[in-house]
Amino acid sequence: MPRVKIEAEPASLIVDTDNAALLIIDMQRDFLEAGGFGEALGNDVTRLRGAVAPCQAMLGTARELGMLVIHTREGHRPDLSDAPPLKLHRGDPRNRIGAPGPMGRILIRGEPGHDIVPELYPLRDEPVIDKPGKGAFYQTDLELMLRNRGIDTLFVCGVTTEVCVNTTVREANDRGFRCIVLADCCASYFPKFHEAGLAMIKAQGGIFGSVAPSPPLVDALAVLSRRGTKRVAI
Questions:
Q1: What would the pLDDT profile of 156-170 be if each residue is shown by its tens digit?
Q2: Structural domain tally of the chain?
Q3: HEC states along the chain?
């Protein structure tokens, strides 16, 4: 049984990698790339881009080990039938969901900006969850996928820390999944929100989950991979 010890906050953990998955949340072009929706809102997208290289390292090692990798994208159907009116009517009309944006219609499935950045692009056999909300469990089959594969632990990466990452971790916690949020693999347009988002997850003895840096985990998983301890894909 391949196990790794993770020095996390609030306490170290031992994880059976056969029962773990890597969940990469919303690393989409419109949020991370210059000229996209995030920048059009006045945000500094380089703050999100900083999470790409750590995510790449974690993703590469997870793939080498044969770990289940799941990607998510936030977005809606082209006819907006799955978008609540409250969400549709928020903010400047020029930057609302479905409006023309720098990379196609904003947060619409199938548009260039909705897709995942090239550096982290999913392989053909890696599930992609298209979610209509902030949380990856809301109105998706993510929980079914995890239960079917016997997953009990999620290594969580993505953006933004305080919104979709935090929402997903809370949903996972309520469903009995253990979440380990990889701090450097997450990011926010607002550094203080990133720090607050991580603090809330690990507070009170890990009320929603644990927080850890990714490099020691990547190194530990690489050792397992070199030993040939790989999970057979289901």
A1: 999 999 999 999 999
A2: 1
A3: CCEEEECCECCCEEEEHHHEEEEEECCEHHHHCCCCHHHHCCCCCHHHHCCHHHHHHHHHHHHHHCCEEEEEEECECCCCCCCCHHHHCCCCHHHCCCCEEECEECCECCCHHHCECHHHCCCCCCCEEEECCCCCCCCCCHHHHHHHCCCCEEEEEEECHHHHHHHHHHHHHHCCCEEEEEEEEEECCCHHHHHHHHHHHHHHHHCCCEEECHHHHHHHHHHHHHCCCCCCCC
Considering the domain boundaries, does residue 30 fall inside one?
Answer: yes
Structural domain boundaries enclosing 129 = 3-76+111-226
Other C-beta atoms closer than 10 Å to the C-beta of 50 total 14
* CATH code for the domain in which residue 131 is found: 3.40.50.850
Q: DSSP string covering 173-202, please?
A: HHTT-EEEEEEEEEE-SSHHHHHHHHHHHH
CA distance 41 to 7: 37
Catalytic residue ranges: 26, 131, 164
Q: What does pTM read for this prediction?
A: 0.95
Summarize pLDDT for 31-53 with one digit per residue, the tens.
999 988 899 889 999 999 999 99
